[in-house]
Amino acid sequence: MSELFTELRGAMTIAHLVGAIRAVLILGLGLLLAKLVAGGVMRLLASRVEPQAARLVRRVVFYGMVGLFVAAALHEVGFDLTILLGAAGVLSVAVGFASQTSASNVISGLFLIGERPFAVGDIIRIGGATGEVLSIDLLSVKLRTFNNLFVRIPNESIIKSEVTNLTRFPIRRADIQVGVAYGEDLKQVREVLLGVADKNPLSLENPEPLLFINGFGTSSIDLQLSVWASRERYMELNYSIQKEIHEAFAAHGIEIPYPHLSLYAGRSTAPIPVTIEKPDDA
Amino acid sequence: MSPATWWGDFDLEPGETLGWRLGELDLRIRSDVREWQVQRLVTAHPPQEPRDWLLDREVELLADDTETIDRFVFEHDSSRLRVTPALADRPVVTSPRVSTHVLPGQSTTLFVGSPIWARVEVQDPPTTILEVPIQRASDTWFGPSRLEGELCYASTSLAVQNLGKLTLRAIRAVTPLRVENRAATPLRIERIKLPVGSLSLYASENGVLWTNEVTMGREADGETVSLDFSADPPTAGGRLAQIQEPRSPEEPGLLVRAFRGLFQGRSAGE
Question: Which residues of chain A does B138 touch, with a Cβ-Cβ cutoff of 8 Å?
């Protein structure tokens, strides 16, 4: 054991010790400086660019500076960086093959940050997931769905697929589908529906509500009432107006029909006789 | 003797309840030990004209209707309450019931109505605990497109020239709006955005609410409108006292706005 210590003491010259101390100092100072500069860059960019872009620049600045100081520290303790760089070249080819997906995600992430189809806090729909954007990172976008699930979507798939931003514009249109029986007076139905939209304070007075006839369905005349609301009150309007339509139809005796099925007995067009009997009192 | 106005300072002993029936709004406030309880209801039987409000001391909270009650709790007892009228917290878009045209080189003063909010403040220290619309105005969008614009309140008004035709009320404010058309084409008024946040509220001795006069002058180029808020109470209202400062006062000086930013036609909902 004592021989080992003697050997080590012999190998570690004063010069090595000084180099190691300097390397530690460079590393410590570098970390501090990188943190300060990255913080400064973040503060500088905070009011000028999107938060996620500022965070990205901060990370690049921080890790770039840390990398430089690590290289300087290694140089101090006697590592030959040219060999390291040569090895890094070979390694980067191997790593490049291994990290194709990650690199694709990183590049997609940069495009996403540049294109800005959505920002942190927006509600977006991608594929089957709808939720609030929590963060836009280099590799993925994180969502919180309305039932409080965490969804991580790789940037590459976002770039490739259709993304709907539900909160991009300040007002939204709710298209309420409603069917009425064929026997109803469409003029009265129109008055009732537009009256409901007019009375609902969340339904914008302008753009004006519109009523469309979408077609003659199998059991009903299919109508669409299109009403606008501010994006913040959209869900509230969507619920309240459907409830109010149901109440108004009930009050005015307007029927929302169930699916109808007419039965014919062979060649005879006379309806099948149906008798309703009272159940026996047991 | 009943008071001349529905606003002012009110002293309530613990356990006492005071009710305001303001148009369709039924507001009940109960004083309790170190707390105020406020209930907001909508009544189907508003007080009838000419006096469309009522103060009721023989009223109780509907304790079962808990969804409509808010409690405001304090460290110290406070018996004084201030209830005041206030203008809307967003601009009000007024649509005259009939499209109005101001011919080239002509000007007119239209009297337009605006919805009023009831503001409830407690004292020591003065704190606004609640603002409630007397009549919930419908939301509306005012802007050049579906992407740009501002969320406002919609209001329909007779926009009469003759004040005698207007029913002056204590639950709606009247704004004298001077429209001057200096352009060579007629000015069609279908929707006007009234920036009520920049207006003061005045009250006459008999409790009618007014705002200061607003002048909108369409310039000769037809594309810009100069906007001016009078610093004095409107002369049409007689003797008036200021009861509310503007929410967001404009800097003194002439304001110029885009024509489409203040006047607009209706747009279909597509």
Answer: 198, 200-205
